[in-house]
Fold this sequence. Notes:
It is built from 3 helices and 37 strands. By secondary structure, it is mainly β. The strands form 6 sheets. It has a 22-stranded antiparallel β-barrel. Strands 1-7-8-5-6 form a 5-stranded mixed beta sheet. A hairpin with a 4-residue loop joins strand 27 and strand 28. The chain is globular and about 80 Å long. The two termini are 29 Å apart.
Amino acid sequence: MRYTLTHTCLISALLGAGGAARADAGLPTFGASQWLTDVEVTAQPDAMGTRTSASQGVIAGAQLQAQALARPADVLEQIPGMVVTQHSGDGKANQYFLRGINLDHGSDFATSVNGVPVNMPSHAHGQGYSDLNFLLPELVQRVNYSKGPYLAEQGDFSSAGSADFVYRTRLAQPLADLTLGQYGYRRALSAGSAPVGDDLHLLGAVEVLNHDGPWRVAEGLRKRNALLTLSGGSAAHGWSTSLMLYNARWTSTDQVPQRLIDAGSYQGQAFGRFDTLDASDGASTSRNSWSGEWHDRNAQEATQLSWYAMRYDLDLYSNFTYQTASNGNSDQFAQRDQRTVYGGKASRSWVMDAQSANPMVNTLGLQMRQDLIRVGLFDSAQRRLTLSVRDDLVRQQQVGIYGQNDTHWLDTVRTVLGLRVDQYTAHVDGRLQAENSGVSSSVKASPKLSLILGPWAQTEVFVNTGRGFHSNDARGTTARVDPRTGAAVDPVPGLVSSRGEEVGLRTQATPHWLTAVSLWRLRFDSELVYLGDTGTTEASRPSQRKGLEWSNHWAPSDSFWLDASMAWTQPRYSDANPEGSAIPNAVHKVAHLTATVRQLGPWSGSWGLRYIGPAALSPDARVLSGANISSNLRLTRRMDANMDVSLDVLNVANRKNNDIQYLYASQVAHETGPVTDSHVHPSEPRSFRLSTRIRF
């Protein structure tokens, strides 16, 4: 499969997730996520010589359009080895899994949309919280992804990987989508672009979504979303600025004890997989941002500048343990996060020895981010606050500088050498516990090295090594006392190192088959683990993961392609501890199979199969989660040149999967004490959605 670039000055630019360009085209190496705003990718955009590792690449927007998506974040499942689930209401950030890591709501996987970072450090609900529910898949031009800590331009939360969603700045035709489905699913989207002046284009989109779900207590998800982008210039010399507005509210459908599902009843009433024990759980959130970028490039150099300002709010009410309090009151707690975020980045790349057969490309970059946060934890009942546990003002700053050198020593030998240095500073004002106030700072240096051999005979070999890091919650870096008990606690470091190594091979064995395999290892000085009783993450023991990934793309014709990927991981705590060495909720095996047919007369379609293997639920691995096997189907018929009708079937086989399973202690009304049990959040049953798209 080939791809098309609409600007002739970019025909020779072969994109990679880290932005590595072919030296024989005389193009500098840098992140290609912003300045290539007019690239129209029609199929697989990865060509030989465009990557720095076997486990990075580009997902074309056309691939996303072909798939049936239950939720916006499901687009991440196009990344080989990554799976996405949900353990609560659909308005909440999803649960992500990659390379044997339970990424919870986003820790150790960095995500950005339209140039704005998604991950939230020092978040009320979980470190690195990454809510992608504002994503508009129809506007995604491409997704640049990478795995492992090998790219100098990637900083916090990127040890396992990263994904950069690049939105379009113009559409060929305005469009309107209307989707109706079971369980109260209603979605309307309208988008279009038009010239508004000399070399100026304005793109706008509005989305409205309602969804109740199959739950006994209706989820009542109400989502409103809007985007406005003004752009000028070209893919080589231009700029854009965007306003994104998003808000949502919902009733949570939190996990429930397996023992009540097995009993089939609770307090004299039938109890099933789609019931809840606290109908007042739920949340409201908003995310509004203004961002912009400017780029200037030619065959010898490239400069990029981008900035963003964001206001974010979340009020979240959760109850995972129900009634363990000795007075029989509800265990519900509230988490509140209100923040203003400012940030930006700049990079410059230039070619040395441009006339040489093997030129060198250097890149320097600067990234800055500041979060001004009020974050709190409260006991509550029926969404009424009963006790303030923590209420903190946090000012957190992160500054990163990096340099990278990309050298072609021979036509088939290339090295990419990078160094990144990050400074973390946090000011915490503990409004309820003065002892937890303070200032903390950390500095980390992260060297990177990649060796690329090839391409020859349409084959490349990659050897990668590098250091990365993730930040810890700022409140933990200044903590001295437990806010509930008053017991002394030790502070945690602001930045925690990771180390990764990878050997990979990528080959186009036949004109129609592209395959990649990688053998990798990733080590953390401190694991971030999920706590079921508080719904947060905390720093834990050191860990090591090693694994094997294999991905394949077979396209025997322009009307059919098949994608298959498999990932095997061995996740372990790396210290000696009598509790055991298994990492809870670290998935060992993941597989995807997707078949896509397009333009067979008026028909197109896609069928995807996903497998998530069992995972240990405790360090001793005595209890395992069940496997999750699901499939989705999309059929599309073009009625005429300006109208399509699509039918999506989600969970085609109607399997009773669990999206998530945890092991911890909880107590319900008739029990005399906490009971350790599995707690599950079921996948939704088979459902149908019918969509109509009209172009104007």
